[in-house]
Design a protein that fits this description.
By secondary structure, this protein is mostly helical. The protein has one domain. The protein is 77% helix and 0% strand. The relative contact order is 0.15. InterPro entries: DUF486.
Length: 124
Amino acid sequence: MLNKGLTTIALLLVSNIFMTLAWYAHLKLQSAKLISSWPLYTVVLFSWGIALLEYSFMVPANRIGFIENGGPFTLVQLKIIQEVITLGVFCVFSLLAFQNQALGWNHAAAFVCLVLAVFFVFMK
């Protein structure tokens, strides 16, 4: 059971790295003047290409981790874990890629609330 849980979390982590890139990398590339001349539909297609990689990890993560498939997590637990991973990946990405975007105490408080959500969703 532990192996499926760790595999699920690792796949969710990789999935969320790709999703964060699909959602936000174009903003960094645009501000760096690398794709500023691209029309919006090209940017959308570029992001969809990255998102396809995200789905290649997200779908297996959910299949492996779901309790009805022999995994350790309920559907709600999978979703809450995914949201916390998403926020963590986003924070790292935004700090590295957009260094002028500071995170404040309210962002930390929101993250703590999400971690508490994970705690509560696992309580019986």
